[in-house]
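Q: I'm building a small set of examples for a reading group on sequence design. Run inverse folding on the following structure and report the sequence directly after it, with nothing in between.
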């Protein structure tokens, strides 16, 4: 637009019916509209603007619109042009819309999980949630029991995939000491630390103490599912 003007670019989703646009297959498309209020294109030139090397500019290569046409065609699209001298030009471009793919979240397979918590009601709730999620859950009340059960399962060739340890057990061995002993038995143990004391340094620096993940109490099914996915994929 040598003398200036207005350029408008719009996009919209359209459904193209059979034979509605002969060059397009029926389906869902993105339609781009590029419209200016420039000097327009003479009628004698309008059918040649996509031809290679055709140009009315002294320094033009004549390949710009040819390349545009080729790219659109290679993407199974279509381009039209309408122009009127003194009023401007409108290009309409149709490109096939790619359907949005739903991201599949891989759920962990059935896991064998050891849960340690000194509160019986909490232990029962966690075990029940794990069973609802499709996992096998075995519960113990303190760290000493957890170590014995974990070691026995490993020796029998049926090891635990994940261990969830309560950080604080007032009447017995807590999560910090327990994971330290479990790492001696199995350096690859996948342990999750859990606590209602979110300000405990172990909760913020859990990896430093040998845990693979953390899940603050109280937590629900979604949080439990997510932390298991994180640990198994790590």
């Amino acid at each position: 637009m040598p003398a200036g003007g207005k350029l408008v670019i719009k996009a919209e989703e359209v459904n193209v019916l059979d034979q509605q646009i002969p060059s397009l297959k029926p389906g869902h498309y993105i339609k781009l509209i590029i419209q200016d209020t420039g000097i327009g294109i003479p009628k004698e030139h309008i059918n040649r603007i996509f031809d290679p090397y055709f140009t009315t500019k002294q320094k033009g290569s004549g390949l710009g619109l040819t390349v545009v046409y080729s790219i659109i065609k290679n993407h199974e699209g279509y381009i039209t042009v309408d122009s009127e001298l003194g009023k401007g030009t409108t290009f309409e471009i149709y490109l096939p819309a790619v359907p949005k793919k739903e991201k599949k979240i891989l759920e962990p397979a059935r896991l064998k999980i050891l849960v340690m918590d000194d509160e019986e009601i909490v232990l029962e709730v966690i075990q029940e949630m794990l069973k609802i999620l499709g996992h096998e859950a075995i519960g113990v009340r303190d760290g000493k029991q957890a170590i014995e059960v974990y070691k026995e399962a490993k020796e029998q060739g049926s090891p635990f995939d994940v261990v969830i340890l309560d950080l604080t057990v007032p009447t017995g061995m807590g999560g910090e000491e327990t994971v330290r002993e479990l790492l001696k038995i199995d350096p690859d143990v996948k342990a999750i630390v859990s606590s209602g004391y979110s300000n405990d340094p172990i909760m913020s620096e859990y990896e430093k103490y040998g845990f693979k993940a953390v899940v603050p109490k109280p937590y629900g099914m979604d949080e439990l599912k997510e932390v298991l996915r994180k640990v198994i994929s790590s």
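Strands lie at 7-16, 27-36, 78-84, 88-96, 112-116, 136-140, 162-166, 191-195, 213-216.
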